Amino acid sequence: xxxxxxxxxxxxxxxxxxxxxxxxxxxxxxxxxxxxxxxxxxxxxxxxxxxxxxxxxxxxxxxxxxxxxxxxxxxxxxxxxxxxxxxxxxxxxxxxxxxxxxxxxxxxxxxxxxxxxxxxxxxxxxxxxxxxxxxxxxxxxxxxxxxxxxxxxxxxxxxxxxxxxxxxxxxxxxxxxxxxxxxxxxxxxxxxxxxxxxxxxxxxxxxxxxxxxxxxxxxxxxxxxxxxxxxxxxxxxxxxxxxxxxxxxxxxxxxxxxxxxxxxxxxxxxxxxxxxxxxxxxxxxxxxxxxxxxxxxxxxxxxxxxxxxxxxxxxxxxxxxxxxxxxxxxxxxxxxxxxxxxxxxxxxxxxxxxxxxxxxxxxxxxxxxxxxxxxxxxxxxxxxxxxxxxxxxxxxxxxxxxxxxxxxxxxxxxxxxxxxxxxxxxxxxxxxxxxxxxxxxxxxxxxxxxxxxxxxxxxxxxxxxxxxxxxxxxxxxxxxxxxxxxxxxxxxxxxxxxxxxxxxxxxxxxxxxxxxxxxxxxxxxxxxxxxxxxxxx
Length: 537
Description:
- The protein is α+β, with helices and mostly antiparallel strands.
- The protein has 16 helices and 21 strands.
- Strand 3 and strand 4 form a beta hairpin.
């Protein structure tokens, strides 16, 4: 069934159920009410717990730290949204984010796994609203009720202070209450990721060394084999086989190109097994107007030899290209897949290739990428990979999780590394489930857990981190009705008081109203621009 139709049917059933509750009088009995499209459940339960916790010392210091965290997050998020707006013209239409991708709701956003997402959202809601409630009472303000917002599933929790009292109180107390919600989410995110990256993931080691298949190119050798994405390659070749102990090992394979060779693979289930695939460096892409296109090369072909040198791997390919001279033709032999043979054989239509000058080609085709250092270097215009495979070293996943800033240099490098850590779900690297999780084993104290339990815990921590950080950063934005919007308004008012000491509260309120409209709609516009911009430019 179509996902949109299923969602519509679930929503219809949800509202039919609400209508039935209203008609039977159960809505009022159980303190249920509607707030726009959401079902709101109010309760007095939990108030005593909040009251006791709020009497502990240190909450005002915690609120002060939260203000610093939220202010930093606020301006960082604004800067990120503005930067993203500048790169929108470079985003292809097909890569533009869809509305469901912009919503961090499990079951709607396809990237967020539903159960881990719900867990992360529940943790975020409980601690976010709990922090609001605690600082409300720590500042001796009234707390009317607690509750949950539902739209089929719980989408938010809330504490309900006395709004009139909150607006009449001092800015310090008000900003205490508003800052601790997003501040707590961000703090939880960092505490959880320290446990995950600092303790759990460093204990993970591969069961076998090898290279994990991430993609299989259309019409490449692997496309016609039984190899599948998510499988780990351990060994390639027959008698003189190459053990794949790292990704670099692929560049050392000596199997005869064009020959069907055995490959030892680990699927994450049982023992390693033997599959077979045609060996060789496969063409993935041919650049328009490049020497490779003129020579007749096509995606899927296997390069057997260039200038009478047999090409076993990428290292040999690079070496041969570096020795070639622009404008001087050389012999070339390639293999193609023939349906009639159900295998690879020499393609006699490709016999020679004449490399171009790399600088000259880029100057005419992609001027911004032309480099003076490329003058005199041979250029064929093909992208290649072994057997048409996209590969990742099996050691990469634990390394990404435990050392996300490995190799990062400068401020931009650390920012991009941090964004990369958040993007793991988009690369299908979170959650890590079987059979991929079976390719790893935890050691040390974490090794005492069953493998399945370890990965459930690791995945849970990552999504608690991810959802809490997203909730915290989003709520820090200077847009009403977000917490950051109310904070920004009070902070802006404090600045206005200092700049215009003789201004009245009414005068400042007019300025603040305009300012908040500008920022609120500005933030909304920057977010919508990411979806709309690529589709209209």
